[in-house]
Design brief:
Elements (H helix, E strand, L loop, with lengths): L1 H27 L1 H4 L7 H22 L8 H7 L1 H53 L7 H27 L2 H7 L5 H15 L1 H8 L15 H26 L11 H27 L5 H25 L8 H23 L1
Length: 344
């Protein structure tokens, strides 16, 4: 009995580590984008999206297909669930667009913190509500969500303190288009719409074969959600290409090697969070609480690592020690929230 418990605990630890690695990769995906040269935002956003939302999710979904079967069989077996999954992916795509704007106005650290914090809470709570699986909303899960939101709120306070303490010149130096009020509103909208990704995964939870390994079971649904998101983003990017007359970006063939390489790198780093979520959940099957809370864990860790990158990129440079202390407290609360539900 003691040996079996040790195995279960070890599997849970491995699952959380895998999710953490995926979160770190996602929080790093905006770093290679800075290496893209002479392309407008809409051009590189579309190209990296091809990798992040189509190519790598498609390859990942194939891992869930047993020998002798095809991926199409999964979607054809339940077209209603497939369509709902794509639909919420389209809504999530709106969140993806505004998510980028939140970082434009608030920076990587604060922008991701507010948007992902809202996404974490709403995604965890609304998914079982929409899918009719409210039994999974146990007290430990709800407590975990509340603690996560408290951590996000503390980081938001640190951001407000940063905004109040820096001069306009210092704000613009750290984040070129810094605008706290506009950024907060956009980040909240981004978080609300981004929660549709979790809802889409909930509707697509049965889009897999019965003998698909647990670690790969959510990957076919992930592809449908990202497909929906790609549709939204592609329409918007093409509209911006026309509006801004930036179609010529795609004709700059001398930039292909550099830009496509870094777009692909950004894409695989972004997708790693959901590949890691699928693998991690496969190790959490012995803990229904952590399975229900896994979305919130991923978002909380995304926020944690995005703030680490914010520190590295000197977005908090010039802030007082008190502001940094509040930020650190918020990060500690987020880290604790990742495993707290298992202890309740």
């Amino acid at each position: 009995m003691h040996y079996a418990l040790c195995i279960i605990k070890m599997e849970i630890i491995i699952g959380l580590i895998i999710i953490a690695v995926g979160a770190f990769c996602q929080s790093s995906c905006y770093v290679p984008i800075n290496k893209i040269k002479d392309w407008s935002w809409e051009s590189y956003w579309l190209v990296q999206g091809i990798f992040a939302w189509i190519v790598f999710p498609f390859l990942g979904a194939f891992l869930a297909v047993p020998a002798g079967h095809s991926l199409f069989e999964v979607y054809a077996a339940d077209p209603t669930a497939t369509l709902w999954t794509v639909f919420f992916g389209i809504l999530w795509g709106v969140g993806g667009l505004t998510f980028g704007l939140s970082m434009r106005y608030l920076g990587v650290a604060l922008g991701q913190s507010i948007a992902l914090g809202t996404c974490a809470g709403l995604g965890t709570i609304l998914t079982p509500v929409f899918t009719g699986d409210t039994e999974s909303l146990t007290l430990p899960v709800i407590v975990g969500v509340v603690i996560t939101l408290i951590g996000i709120a503390i980081i938001g306070i640190a951001g407000s303190m940063k905004s109040a303490s820096l001069s306009e010149e210092e704000k613009k130096k750290a984040v070129k288009d810094f605008n706290f009020t506009k950024g907060i509103l956009v980040a909240l909208l981004a978080g609300f719409m981004s929660a549709c990704f979790a809802i889409g995964l909930g509707f697509g939870k049965d889009l897999c074969f019965s003998d698909t390994p647990d670690i790969y079971k959510t990957l076919p649904a992930t592809l449908m959600v990202t497909l929906g998101g790609f549709i939204t983003n592609a329409v918007y990017c093409f509209f911006q290409n026309s509006k801004n007359k930036t179609w010529s970006d795609y004709k700059k063939t001398s930039l292909y090697t550099n830009n496509i390489l870094f777009c692909a790198l950004a894409g695989v780093l972004w997708y790693s969070q959901f590949f890691g979520l699928s693998l991690g959940k496969g190790f959490l099957t012995s803990s229904p609480v952590l399975l229900a809370f896994s979305w919130c864990i991923l978002m909380a860790l995304n926020v944690t690592f995005s703030n680490v990158w914010g520190i590295i990129l000197k977005e908090w440079k010039g802030c007082s020690q008190k502001t940094i202390a509040v930020l650190i407290v918020g990060l500690i609360v987020l880290i604790v929230s990742s495993f707290l539900p298992q202890l309740i």
